[in-house]
């Protein structure tokens, strides 16, 4: 690092700098106790980048570094931090500092944090929030964990239909500082949601116009007890920035914002990916999860799949007389089971993705089967011809070529059928379709393909078993 006295932080482009470079600069400034330069550097960084920087800095320096941040940026940075980092900071901040942080954090971020903190930390957080905020936190915490109510924030802008545009804009100016988003304002009457209007519409309208004349009355909303995954799908479908949340009596109680919906999508995708890899989902990231927890999340499915695979062994053992007459039969088992597993995994992956995006429903099952059957016929014919020719050239055995060709057609058709139907059936009986992914499909197809292969072989070769 060059002489720190010659650094001109105002001319440095922190946007294009790598995190390692920023970390090195921060550590150099810390070691030489150049706090004014460090404060200036932090002022040029985005809150999300500062939170990442805190993960890399020596934990002993974090309280000092955090206290160098301006009040508003400190609260925003805090909301971006990992839960472990937040817990570390809460334990080091004074009550006055913690109160200042909690005053500037949006309610939904506070609730998310409280849900994952130990009891002693939660008690300290609640002790340093005002009575009204504590009531609102408890209100949100009373909703089911995975519901829209637990995801929402109650910091939104509401206006009345008999207001003029000028009055509405004035209200936004007065209250916007405490709201998470002001891009959409919600029109309420006796707390019931009756319309909405965007800030763009307000700015484009005359000040004397009434809100009732420009508001949108067909408002897409969600219920407090709606599953948060369904809420995320609404965002994906309509590209909203926020969705209003109403209770059973159609009263507006909060909004879900786009950033929270993105977090839900990431959580659901992570959960699906882990299930598709035959693992139990974990809430912590990879490095924060212990070796024991990783092993525990994987061993269950591995045991199930391993024991299931023994069925293939029983089938092979049943047809051992065939091996004695035609030892060459054994060499093609891995190729057939592998091809079947790959074909089944392709179909199941497409079904799981289609179900998660609401592109495919259970009612489409026969359309799906018919389509996958046609795909299977085309794919299997190509594979059968290529392998049939290869085997005949390599071994000069027409019977074996025919056995493999017929087996490939049967295995591919069956595996496509299994791969496309199991996720749909799982969804229909309220199981997660991600469970019917590659490992399970491969195991089932492996059993079926082995059985089909030997059935075809015994018929073509006229072997009695």
The percent of residues in helical segments reads 55-70%
- The succession of helices and strands, N to C, reads HHHHHHHHHHHEHEEHHEHEEHHHHHHH
Shape: elongated
Q: What count of structural domains?
A: 3
**Alpha carbon gap, first and last residue:** 78 Å
* Coarse structural class: mainly alpha
The largest sheet, given as strand count, sense and whether it forms a barrel, is: 3 strands, mixed
So, CATH architecture of the largest domain? Orthogonal Bundle
List low-pLDDT spans.
none
Percent of residues in beta strands?
5-15%
> Quaternary status of these chains?
single chain
Strand order of the largest sheet: 1-2-3
In the CATH hierarchy, the third-tier topology of the largest domain is known as Tetracycline Repressor, domain 2
CATH classification, class level of the largest domain: Mainly Alpha
Explain what you see:
The protein is mostly helical. It has three domains: 139 residues, MgtE N-terminal fold, CATH 1.25.60; 100 residues, CBS-domain (Roll); 171 residues, SLC41 divalent cation transporters, integral membrane domain (Tetracycline Repressor, domain 2), CATH 1.10.357.20. Helices cover 64% and strands 6% of the residues. The strands form two sheets. The protein has a three-stranded mixed sheet. Helix 19 runs parallel beside helix 21. The longest helix is centred in the C-terminal third of the chain and has 31 residues. The mean pLDDT is 83.
């Amino acid at each position: 690092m060059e002489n720190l006295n010659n650094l001109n932080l105002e001319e440095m482009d922190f946007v294009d700098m790598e995190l390692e470079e920023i970390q090195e600069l921060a550590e150099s400034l810390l070691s030489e106790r150049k706090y004014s330069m460090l404060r200036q550097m932090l002022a040029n960084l985005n809150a999300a980048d500062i939170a990442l920087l805190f993960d890399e800095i020596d934990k002993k320096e974090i309280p000092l570094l955090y206290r160098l941040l301006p009040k508003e940026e400190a609260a925003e940075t805090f909301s971006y931090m990992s839960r472990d980092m937040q817990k570390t900071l809460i334990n080091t901040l004074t009550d006055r500092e913690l109160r200042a942080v909690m005053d500037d954090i949006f309610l939904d971020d506070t609730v998310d944090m409280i849900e994952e903190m130990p009891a002693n930390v939660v008690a300290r957080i609640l002790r340093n929030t005002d009575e009204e905020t504590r009531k609102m936190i408890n209100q949100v915490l009373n909703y089911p964990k995975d519901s829209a109510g637990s995801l929402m924030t109650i910091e939104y802008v509401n206006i009345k239909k008999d207001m003029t545009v000028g009055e509405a804009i004035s209200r936004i100016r007065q209250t916007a500082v405490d709201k998470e988003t002001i891009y959409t304002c919600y029109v309420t009457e006796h707390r019931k949601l009756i319309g909405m209007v965007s800030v763009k519409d307000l700015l484009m309208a005359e000040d004397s116009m009434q809100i009732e004349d420009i508001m949108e009355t067909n408002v897409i909303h969600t219920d407090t007890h709606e599953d948060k995954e369904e809420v995320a799908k609404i965002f994906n479908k309509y590209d909203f920035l926020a969705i209003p949340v109403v209770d059973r009596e159609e009263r507006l109680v909060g909004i879900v914002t786009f950033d929270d919906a993105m977090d839900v999508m990431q959580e659901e995708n992570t959960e699906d990916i882990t299930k598709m890899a035959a693992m139990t989902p974990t809430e912590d990231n990879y490095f924060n999860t212990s070796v024991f927890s990783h092993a525990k999340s994987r061993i269950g499915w591995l045991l199930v799949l391993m024991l299931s695979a023994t069925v293939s062994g029983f089938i092979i053992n049943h047809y051992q007389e065939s091996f004695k007459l035609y030892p060459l039969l054994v060499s093609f088992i891995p190729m057939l089971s592998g091809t079947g597993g790959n074909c089944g995994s392709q179909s199941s992956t497409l079904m799981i993705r289609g179900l998660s995006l609401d592109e495919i429903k259970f009612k489409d099952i026969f359309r799906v089967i018919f389509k996958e059957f046609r795909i299977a016929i085309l794919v299997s014919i190509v594979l059968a011809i290529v392998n049939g020719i290869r085997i005949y050239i390599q071994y000069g055995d027409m019977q074996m070529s025919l056995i493999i060709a017929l087996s490939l057609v049967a295995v591919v058709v069956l595996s496509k059928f299994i791969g496309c139907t199991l996720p749909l059936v799982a969804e229909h009986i309220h199981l997660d379709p991600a469970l019917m992914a590659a490992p399970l499909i491969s195991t089932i197809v492996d059993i079926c393909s082995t059985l089909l292969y030997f059935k075809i072989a015994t018929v073509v070769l006229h072997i009695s078993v």
